[in-house]
Every structure is written in C-alpha cells, then in structure tokens.
Amino acid sequence: xxxxxxxxxxxxxxxxLCASLSTYGQTEEVKxxxxxxLRQHVFGAMTVQRCDSEIxxxxxxxxxxxxxxxxVNTFILANNNQVRAVCTxxxxxxxxxxxxxxxxxxxxxxxxxxxxxxxxxxCEYRGHKSTRKIVVGCADDWxxxxxxxxxx
Length: 152
Hints:
Strands 1, 2, 3, 4, 5 and 6 form a 6-stranded antiparallel β-sheet that branches. The protein is α+β, with helices and mostly antiparallel strands and 152 residues long. Helix content is 30%, strand content 32%. The model is unreliable at 4-23 (pLDDT under 50). It starts with a helix and ends with a strand.
C-alpha cells in the first residue's frame, strides 16, 4: 500500500510541476498580455460566419477605454502551442524590430473586417479566410501582439 501512495504522490508532484512550467518565466505583465493575445487572436475552430458572435462574446473592442468597434481582427486557426512556437524557434526575427517574429510556416487565418456599427455589441463584420505567415510580437518567448499576416 505504501508503494501505491508513494507513486500517487510522485504523480501529483509531476502534475503540479508541469502546470507551473507552462507559464514559467512569465512576469505578471507578460502573462496578462499573452492571455489577451489568445482571447483576441487564437481560435482553431473559427469560421468566417462566426466573426460577429466571436468578437461579441470575446468582448473585442477597438480600444480598452471604450466600446468602439474594432476595425479589423484576425483569428489564427491553430492551438496555443502552435502559435507560441513562432516565438520559440518556429519563427524568424524581423531585422527592423527585435520583438517581431514571422512564422516559418503559413497558418490559416480568418480576418474579420468591420462593415457596420460604431459601438459594441452592435458591430457587424465580414469574414475572409486565407493562409499566410503570421507576424507576432513576442515578450520573453510568449506571443503578446498580432502584427500582421504575410500572404504566401
């Protein structure tokens, strides 16, 4: 019985260690910026028909200080780890800016462009799907800003 309890404790310890390593090295500021980046730009199941509902549900606005409609928002159709890889070896640093990295491989994206409305939640968008290399801003190896996409 004590062997089973010992193994059980080791498994719990390993789980706790793995969970803490997932954000290891992140300052609180970087962690918040990364979470906002994920909320605004990463959604593997996004479709062009879901622009209005996702932007409304995720409360994506043009400015953090008001409820203005955001002109354009791009969703990367991938998971968190695939996007993070751009900052940790799966991307190339742009020479003109040390914090921007272009992905080495293209990603499918859905770009939602505002077609009407001025204030959230009455924003209406048209979605367009494409494949492009993404450019993200990285802080401490974590994506924190979507800069642009480069059509390939």
